[in-house]
Task: inverse folding
């Protein structure tokens, strides 16, 4: 079945540091890939997505590229802020299927 | 994107009781889903709420424990029945985005603590 494997946390960074969260997936077809973010005390929000190979999703300075050859969708941000402290979830849905499979989540803490 | 609300936002319940969680969307949507997020864990899909028919449950979840209603295209309820402390979780509903975009939007969640 489909699965998503995320880099384990927690991750602690200083402000303006570079952030990478690794995500790899297993799927039978051509899935859509997502990053969701959960800020402290808030609900889950869609951060970015990519629906086909070589697509790059981007939002709020975050980027992730759909790499079919390595089955990866790593999340990156060049300069993090304290406000980026959150739990980040990688997820996928198979083609023509809305059901989401989530990774375990990575807790990121950014210190001033 | 749709605006989704859930009631209650949190609750503390006694074991053996049941709690019904409501999910309301500000626009008609085709698909509604219910997820569970246990403490420190990722999200697990409980079921897909189908309008006009029974919900479709994922492996490990049954209708007797988690009955779901979907009376129309903007509303759904999830009941957590005969609760035990292991049911303490955040329960989230989500809806599909615009047709064909395969994106889900999530409600704020209901934090449940069972004593």
Result:
């Amino acid at each position: 079945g489909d699965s998503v494997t995320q880099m384990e946390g927690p991750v602690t960074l200083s402000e303006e540091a570079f952030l990478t969260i690794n995500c790899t997936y297993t799927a039978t077809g051509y899935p859509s890939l997502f990053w969701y973010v959960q800020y402290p005390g808030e609900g889950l929000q869609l951060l970015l997505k990519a629906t086909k190979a070589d697509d790059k999703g981007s939002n709020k300075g975050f980027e992730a590229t759909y790499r079919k050859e390595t089955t990866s969708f790593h999340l990156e941000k060049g300069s993090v802020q304290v406000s980026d402290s959150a739990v980040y979830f990688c997820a996928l849905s198979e083609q023509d299927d809305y059901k989401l499979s989530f990774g375990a989540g990575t807790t990121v803490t950014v210190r001033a | 994107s749709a605006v989704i609300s859930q009631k209650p936002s949190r609750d503390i319940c006694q074991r053996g009781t049941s709690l019904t969680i409501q999910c309301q969307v500000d626009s008609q949507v085709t698909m509604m889903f219910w997820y569970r997020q246990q403490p420190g864990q990722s999200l697990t899909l409980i079921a897909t709420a189908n309008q006009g028919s029974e919900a479709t449950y994922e492996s490990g979840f049954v209708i007797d424990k988690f009955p779901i209603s979907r009376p129309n295209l903007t509303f759904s309820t999830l009941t957590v029945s005969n609760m035990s402390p292991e049911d303490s979780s955040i329960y989230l509903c989500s809806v599909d985005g615009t047709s064909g975009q395969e994106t889900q939007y999530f409600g704020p969640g209901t934090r449940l603590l069972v004593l």
Chain B has no helices and eleven strands. The mean pLDDT of chain B is 92. Chain B touches chain A through 20 residues (CB under 8 Å).
